[in-house]
Amino acid sequence: MIKNYFKIAWRNLWKNKISSVINMVGLAVGMAACIVILLFVSYEKSFDSFHGTDIVRLNEVQKFPGMAASQKVALSMYPMAPALKAEFPEVKDYTRVKWDKKYQLTYNEKRVFVPQVFAVDSSFLSIFNFAVIKGNALEAIKKPNSIAITQETAEKLFGKEDPIGKIINHYGGDTLKFTVTAVMANAPKNSQLQFDALYSLPGIHQKWMDNWGGNWLNTYLKVAPGTNLKAFEKKMPAFLKKHMNGEGWKFYELFYLPLKEVHAGSTEIGLDYLNFQKFDQKSTNLFAIIAIIVLVIACVNFMNLSTARSADRAKEVGIRKSIGANRPQLALQFLGETILLSLLALVLAIGLVEIALPYVNNLSLRDISLPVLSKPLFLPLILLGTIVVGILSGAYPALFLSSFQPVKVLKGSVETGKNKGTLRNILVVGQFTSAVFLMIATVFVVKQLKFMQEKDPGFTRDQIVTIPLDRISGQKYQLFKQQLLGNTLVAGVTASQDQLGSHLDQSGVDFKYNDSPVRNMAATQLIVDDDYLKVYDIKIAQGKNFSSEKSANGREYIINEAMANELLKDHPKATMASLIGQRFGYDSLGVITGISKNFNFNSLHYKVENLYIVNQDEWGFRTVSVKIKPGSAKAAVGFIKDTWKKVNPDHPFEYEFLDDHFAEVYRADNQVSKIVGILAGLAILISCLGLFGLASFSAEKRIKEIGVRKVLGASVQNIVLLLSGHFIKLVLVSNLIAWPLAWYAMNLWLKDFAYHISISWGTFVFVAVLSVLIALLTVSFQSVKAAIANPVKSLKSE
């Protein structure tokens, strides 16, 4: 019997080819969108899933005097971890991580620069489940100056030689010798911790052991099973008060984040340097919701077209019931047709997913694939989901079709369109409301992203090439600068400890206004050389730029307007100009020589913070900024590279345009805008497929009416308006419903940005016009086709 049902189902699908294709394509697109987003969500959820569930990361809330707001940071103090383990039974073990980028390692005459090396406690490999290929994981980094390297690093340094026991050197600020004690598998791509080697931390950084107050590493704790982290956090103020000198403990709070939540749940946490491919959980959830909406729209299409064609199946139902078929049997038959269509759609969907995944991986920088073989449950779950989709799509049409009374149907008196037409209208409105909502959201997201990329940040970032420095290359900065400035391709050279667009460090400073008491506070710091403001074209509002010669009053400081306003809070009658020459700074106080205009040194997600700039070149720099002449990028980069090789022959040349760095700052926002835009486009496509099917059905059912109207003198334009007008009204109603929903959602979303666009009603009108035009184009083909048909043929068919 079931075999017979599927035969009948196949015949009906083949008979109604247009309707079947529309339904299948709509369902396939909806399924494909859901599968891709499901794979993305699954990949995000998989981050650090191979570690234990009892690992947490220690984080700080810093709330220093003078800061506009408190900030959460992923960094912590060196002595915290051993003190926590000694004093609290909740802490079973700990490991700390200090990272070094572009780390140089040498074996014999072979020198390589690996992207990132961690200095860690010996417990690192017992807390985290990173695979060790050679050597003992528990003993690998217990001894000072021992190092465990990844398989990729081993191949770079040793080729096919066995690395265990070999001595490798690091030439940095100090010359260090390491003994290779283990070879590890490369860190999985779904690990927030990405490294090329691990070396023992205490032996290298012992001098920092007692430094409470310095935040320069990450701390991970292994806690006792069942530990209540909120209750544990309540013990931290007393812990800080016990160990920190004076009143300093009041400026900190400690909180813990389970390792499995760090990757996607630490958007508000700054200085989060070791969170590979960090992505906001809210965006992931948004993608999932939109994908479900797209699939629901596809299901609604099926319901609409099935109920619309109910009259075509009425006599079939009447005959089957008259010869003994009961309602459950008929409902099962119609559900079988839906499930068959869904399974066919699944095949098409899998093909679409395979086509889409390379683009998705390129956009998201992930390595997502269809886990057909790697995850045995994947196919059964997808098949089960497809059957569920088929049942949900076909349940109502099956119940509706199987409810026809055979007597009425065979007499031709059954009514299949009145109430069902109202339901179809509601479903169409629901479809287009969702689609219009997504269109509006996409426009605002794109506009906000464009606004962030094009807004004047208050400094020049065009034609700026940045080059990273380490301790060795940093010592030759002045020579590098002099040689670069000797070429006309270079318009300016400067250096700094941090790069604009990155999260800058905070530091404590003192301020003394005339005879007033010294005020202790904290602010963001930027350590630069004398030419920094000139190269970046940062405007001076009061005072002057750094002097070429050192001031007799000590270090020179330039503060931004936000900082100036903070300093003036205790002196309401003073002016910004009066701050020039006042004592300011750390160590022995220097002087304020200038006040710069505010500039957005960070992402536009954040307001301009209090900032001071100091020309502290004796502390060294980590980034060189080279301003090149416009239109000469290729030649200028070539010259910079050649100069670098002359000055630093043993160091690889790396560079990045500052514009590209800021594009990376907004990478996650760009990903969100593109993915939301794609899903919005799919929603519109599926809605239009449904509209096309309904327009086709409507034109087919009214063919005789159209023939009569044409005989009586109706023009093609009249007929097109007659057939299209109803659908255009539905789309307009959809817009009226979608507008307030989109306005509320966009207001909520834009609050995440300190600087954002305003919500203009012009966007809503634009989307309304666009949606009407799309709907009109969708239904016009069938409308025009019906309008130009020969009325004689349609009337003869009676």
From TrEMBL:
Superkingdom of origin organism: Bacteria
Segments traversing the membrane: 21-43, 286-305, 330-357, 377-401, 422-446, 675-698, 719-741, 753-777
InterPro entries according to UniProt: ABC3_permease_C, MacB_PCD, Macrolide_Exporter_MacB
Keyword Transcription belongs to the record: no
Bilayer topology term: Multi-pass membrane protein
Chain ranges of the ABC3 transporter permease C-terminal domain: 289-406, 678-790
Pfam family, one: MacB_PCD
The name this protein goes by in its record: ABC transporter permease
UniProt entry keywords in alphabetical sequence: Cell membrane, Membrane, Transmembrane, Transmembrane helix
Location of the protein in the cell: Cell membrane
Organism listed in the record: Mucilaginibacter pankratovii
Domain MacB-like periplasmic core: from-to ranges: 20-236, 436-637
